[in-house]
Design brief:
With 156 residues, the chain is α+β, with helices and mostly antiparallel strands. The protein has two domains: 53 residues, no CATH class; 74 residues, no CATH class. It has five helices and six strands. The chain has a two-stranded antiparallel sheet.
Length: 156
């Protein structure tokens, strides 16, 4: 077997991945034996963008934040728990009591966004592979195959 260069493999993998999704619907469940020699021609372009970095995002663990808040509330702990229960009930009720609460407390929303921004800025950057755009036409020049892929699934 001849070794293909990385650009050819990339073009084939991207092109065949899309084709395979469509082909799957036409194949019944089972185990298949494949013994084919396929000769293909590829013509087109493969564009690979530069690798970049991104700041990871985070999902705020609300329950943990509330638990820490209650644990650190000190002598106001009991009142904080009662207030939390009251607020949870209001926000989860079928009425509209909790709707607009964040807008009404814009300073809390701004502080929350600032805290999340500070936290994500302190996280290490993660590498991101550059975008790959494949515009390739694939043509089957020769397909010297065994009669057909044999399904070796056992019938029950």
């Amino acid at each position: 077997m001849t070794t293909m260069n990385a650009v050819t493999l990339l073009a084939l993998s991207k092109t065949f991945a899309d084709m395979a999704k469509d082909a799957r619907d036409g194949v019944e469940a089972g185990k298949y034996t494949v013994d084919e020699t396929v000769t293909l021609t590829l013509a087109g372009t493969v564009a690979v963008s530069e690798d970049t970095e991104k700041t990871p995002t985070c999902s705020i663990p609300v329950k943990e934040v509330l638990a820490l808040f209650i644990a650190r509330a000190g002598f106001t702990r009991d009142h904080s728990i009662a207030l939390l229960k009251e607020c949870l009930g209001a926000a989860l009720s079928k009425g509209v009591e909790g709707v607009g609460a964040v807008e009404a407390a814009a300073d809390i929303d701004a502080e929350f966004k600032a805290a999340v921004s500070d936290l994500t800025a302190s996280l290490p950057k993660t590498p991101v592979k550059g975008k790959v755009v494949v515009k390739v036409a694939v043509a089957c020049v020769e397909n010297a195959a065994a009669p057909a892929a044999a399904n070796t699934a056992k019938s029950a």
